[in-house]
Here is the input.
Amino acid sequence: MRISTTKLAIGCSLLAVLAASPAAFAAKSVLEIAIPAELSGSGATVGVLWRDGVMMGIEDANAKGGIRGHKLHGTAYDTQTNPAVSRAVIQKALDGKPFAVLGPVYSGSVIVDEALTQKAGITEIMGGEAGNLTSQGDPTLFRTSLGQAQTIPPIISYLKDKVHAKSVGASYVNDDFGKAGNVLFLADAKKAGLNVTTDISSEAGQVTFQPDLLKMQAAKTDAVFLYDHEEEVARFLKGFRQMGMKAAIVGGSTVADAQAIKLSQGAADGAVSFAGIGSSSPIPAIQSFVKRFEAKYKTHPDHNAIKGYMAVAMLQAAADKEGKADAKGLAAALHGLMITPDKYPLIMTPMKVLANGDIDNGGYLIQVKGGKAVVLNYVGPK
Amino acid sequence: MNQPHRVLPLALVLLLVAGLAGSVLKPYPIYLISLWAVYTISAIGLNLTLGFAGQISLAQASFVGFGAYATALLLPHGVPFGFTLVIGAAISFILGVLLGFPALRVQGHYLAFVTLALATIAFLVFRNESWLTHGTAGIDKIARPIPFTSDVAYMWLCLAALAVVTLGVWWLLRSPWGRAFLALRENPVRAASLGVDVRTYTLLAFAIGAGLGGVSGALFAPLGQYIEPSEFALPLSFSLLLMVVVGGSGSFLGPFLGAMVSVALPEVLRSFQDYYLLIYGVIVILLLVFSPDGIVGIIARGVARLRPTDAPVEPKP
Here is the structure.
């Protein structure tokens, strides 16, 4: 039997291709997503929602084919809201060579984790909002929401241009979230020529704010800048109204948060905040997400769940930009990336990834009116 | 198991095995072994105060904090690690002496509350004096001492420090000091009647325990390379207390085993996901219900059962 030279060449070529790329005919590998989060300890309410948001994002992404044909698999690691434990679990996650790390949320845990993810060259998309996290020059660390350096300046502008305030009293919760926000506020207020008459720290879980309010009342400030957690915001505002104080109330996103409005029983009316994307944002995709999340997890998602969900879209967009699902190139692909919901539905609203790892996906100047958060102004991504 | 001279070789072999295993393992178990060594040093200190001298303390985390902050704050100024360790231990030792004074007047629950007050004050200092401690932002990028910069090398440093502490405490417990501590625990009045200076030894029990907390903190800071106030709050004090009690309060090997349970067991149970801490809690409760003298008690009973009983001696005709 004679075989022609052409047939022989084609046959050899096919064999060579088969031998060189056996994976081409095998199923594409699963991409492992490590999710370090505060699943126990004081940060559990935040971390559990973050994890559930990421898990829902992974499920939705897999339903649409995953990332460049690779299915995703998420593994959650409990940091116990303790940096020493966080260091252990991120090390465990990195030993498994994940495609990316999504989490954690608390600053202390983020700081210990980012040193290791940077060393390993693995992209870490975290839920922290403290201003100092992305100022360290880590090229593999990214946010999923606006940082404090982006949410505080619009409030300062509001105080200057709309309230025409000359003096302001500050009240903040003395933890990593509140202290970092307070430091930025004091610096920006000084630049804007605002006189900060009182600067009072409070404890998480503080029951009464009467002594703080008395100091502010004595100082006769034009406005109060409140940077606290939802429950404490409600207690502060109730005391504020009981004392008949008239100063304008401004603050972080918690001031006009649904939980704070509910707990304050009308005392939050008139309060103004600048907030990033959250569960009350008037965006149809977000409202649809909120309903699906509630149906799935039987709880209301806050901004942390939304951030976790959007983090998966950031991975999709970065992998598409680099043209392959390669963990090492993800971070470089993310810098400067514009992600839009028409191409990546999980992002829900347009997001610009900035050079330092911050993101810009817009925010809202919100005022509480009649027990509801009303959008005064929308500031889209630049 | 309560005889230091009998179990000392066992403790040293345990350290050697941990080190050799860590040298061939991945970074995650290496970190856990290092953390175990660091926590064991602190638990040995607390065991000395609580287990051997009978003085309860809920402030051990504060002493770990003083050691950690001393190292984290002094290292960037060019102070060698060895000095920062000594300074951290000395600060904790002095504060331990000060904490010991109330122990001369109050005991039991009341003493626990006094130490609780110190723990709270120390946490507030770490958090609020941000001009010194960097407050809630914490201190990051804490350098490891040269040549112990790699994970494996630093693990060996932690194990070596634990070996030195183990030998030191072994010597201490065999000395008249150790016997005085035991006398203090069993019956202070009788100890005084036998010539033991109750005042001095009570202060020393606190001071040495606190000093070891400081040593532990000095090693802790470069291990994670980041510290913040909440790491040295009450939960760590309770965790260290748990290590001592679970291991076996007043036994030489207890802190080694207790710290192992506290560090390794939650990690082993992680596969149970949301329930892993619940299961961990149940195991600890069951352990203490069935063996109030801790793991050491279980081992001691097991060893006693394995030993052949002496054959009855036949009476000579």
